Structures are given as structure tokens and as C-alpha cells.
Amino acid sequence: MMTRLGRVAFDWVSQGNPWTNVYGFSRSLIALATAMTLAFNDASVFFRPAAGILTYPNRGALPGIFNMVPASYTYLNVVRWVCVVILLLVASGWRPRITCVLHWWISYSLFTSAITIDGGEQVATVMTLLLLPIALTDNRKWHWQTPADTLTIRNDEVLRRIVAYVTLTAIRVQVAIIYFNSTVAKLAQPEWIDGTAVYYYLNDPMLGLPSLLKNALNPILTSSAVVIPTWGTLILQTCLFAALFAPKSTWKYFLRAALLFHESIALMLGLVSFSLIMVASLVLFLHPAEKPFLWPDRFWSLLLRRTNLIFRRSEHAESSM
After folding, report:
1. Where do runs of H (alpha helix) occur along the chain?
2. Three-state SS at 53
3. What percentage of the chain carries pLDDT values higher than 70?
4. Residue 185 — pLDDT band, cuts 50, 70, 90?
5. Residues 290, 16: contact at Cβ < 8 Å?
6. What number of other Cβ atoms are within 10 A of residue 280's Cβ?
7. Would you say residue 100 lies in a domain?
8. How many CB atoms lie within 10 A of CB 11?
9. If DSSP codes are grouped into helix, strand and coil, which group holds residue 143?
10. What's the CA gap between 159 and 9, in Å, rounded?
11. How far apart are CA 208 and CA 149, in angstroms?
């Protein structure tokens, strides 16, 4: 029994190396999204008294990085910029084994300590926590590196791959549950059932459309055609949950539809950091981790060629003087 189970596990992890730039790209997107949120907002935006909350920053079950200093905006702003620097280091891909814990701690700290208005910080906290086993078993110096191809897999690497693939499966289940819960919650609200929810959301005074877009889309929002984006959202989110059970060959179609959906949200509502975090989660959900993206290698190769060309021109100019 155990021999058969071990053989199945070995065949499963032999499908490819899970430590590719796919999970690295997702880490970078989440880190950049949180870095943008922290960089473009003063500490007073995140940490302030609220209804029923007199002290700030809030304290979660575990102490956050913003709880390490006195509740002064001077100190909190210093910590905020320290977090931005660390997050940029995470996004660079350097030493995922070292930076992954700091990445989760910052995401957790922002979610538990700050007063926020969207769910991006919560998703980032969950995703960075689930990414810990993958990053901690990644022995590369940079998460952009192409993993070495080996004909044989050592026993210790088999165990590491099992940890990584089990974690990736857990991430897929978690992202599917996010869309399932979102759909179920919407179905309990009459405005989603009657097809008018998008009208109310896009006209919300805090999170709604900017004036220019509102004027352009108002003829649609005030007509019966508003049911198309409203029910379309429900259908798409249901399909994304169902993608958990879809063949791997069909994942790219779900991914394209989901990316279009979230980028539309970013464009219309300005929820850029939330959309980036969801895009990162969708990549982990709907792009095979063992199939690395080709564009990072092309980008670095092009950058290296351009840099070498600049140095050569500089050397030639100096020699001709």
C-alpha cells in the first residue's frame, strides 16, 4: 500500500519543478501591491481611531510590525517606509527563503493593524501565509531563476516537492473558495438577484466610478442592460470556482476571463492594489506552476544587451577622445 502510494506521489511531483518564476511572479505582484498601498498613503490613513476602537494601531493575535513602535505617526511612518523597502526587496525576487517570512509578517501586520476599506489586505495575508512552505523549500538565490533540469530527483528533493505541490493545491482550493463565498454572499442580496447591483456599486460615493466614466456608462447603468454585468459577474465567479475541477488544458481560458474582469475593476473603480493581489492569486490558481513564463528571461536578456551596448558606446566615446 505504502509502496503504491509512494509511487503515486513520486509520479505527481515528477511532472515538473514547482519552484519557477510562476510563483515568483505572484510573490512579486503581491509585494508590489502592498508596497504601493503603503507608499502612497500616510500612516494617518491606516492608523486612527474608529467606531468602538480608541487605540491604534490595532493589535491582532500576533504582534505586528506596526505594534513594535509607539503610537506616533512619526514612528509609524518610519516603519511604513521600512516595510516598503522590504517589500521591494521581496518583489525583486532575492532569497525567497529569507524574505518570505518578512513578506507574510508585513501583510499580516497591515491587515490586523490598519483600518482598510477593501479585502485585498486579507487576501494578501492568506496568500503570503500559504506561500511560506513553497518559499521555504526554494533553495534558489532569486525566484526569477530558471530551475536546473535534472534527470533524477534526490530523496530530499522529492520531499520538498511534495510540500510545494501540496501547498499549491491548497492555494488553488483557497482561491476557488474565495470566489465560491463571494458568489453565495451575492446571491443572498436582492439587488444581485434582480440584476441592479452593479448600478449601486458603480454609483457608490466612496468606491464608485469617477465622473468621466460615470457619465459615459450611465446610459447602460440606468437601462435594463445593467443585468448583463451584474449576472455576468455571478456567472464568471461561479465558473472560476468550477475551474478547480477543470482539466489543466482549459485553465488558460478561465485565467484570461478572470484577468479581464479584475483589470476592469482596477480601471473603473481604482482598486489597483486589490486587483494586483487577485491577479497574483489567479496566476497561482490557473497557471501550472511547473510551466515557467518565458517573458522574464527575455526581459532580463534584453536589459543585459541594452546595458552592455550602453557601456560599449561609453568606452568607445572615451577611447576616441
Report:
1. 2-13, 21-39, 43-46, 73-92, 96-113, 120-130, 132-136, 155-187, 190-193, 197-202, 211-221, 227-242, 251-269, 272-286, 295-320
2. strand
3. 90
4. very high
5. yes
6. 25
7. yes
8. 9
9. coil
10. 10
11. 49
Tell whether the model's pLDDT for residue 2 goes beyond 60.
no
Burial label for 211, CB within 10 Å (0-12, 13-18, 19+), is: exposed
CA 131 to chain centre: 11
CA 217 to chain centre: 29
Residue 282, pLDDT above cutoff 70:
yes
How many C-alpha atoms does 283 have within 13 Å on its Cβ side?
Answer: 24
Whether the CA torsion 24, 29, 34, 35 is positive or negative: it is positive
Query: Into how many domains does the chain fold?
Result: 1
- Identify the CA nearest to 175 among candidates 258, 264, 253: 258
> Nearest CA to 235 among 186, 276, 283?
186
> One-letter amino acid identity for 2?
M
Length of the chain: 321
Cell of 126: 492568506
306, part of any domain: no
pLDDT at 123: 96
Phi-psi region of 59 (alpha: psi -120 to 50; beta: other; left: phi over 0): beta
Domain that holds residue 204: 17-290
Can you tell me the distance from the alpha carbon of 278 to that of 263, in angstroms, rounded to the nearest whole number?
10
298 assigned to some structural domain: no
- Is 163 exposed, middle or buried, given 0-12, 13-18 or 19+ CB atoms closer than 10 A? middle
Q: Is the pLDDT of residue 315 over 80?
A: no
Q: How many CB atoms lie within 10 A of CB 177?
A: 12
Note whether residue 308 is domain-resident.
Answer: no
What pTM was computed for the model? Answer: 0.89
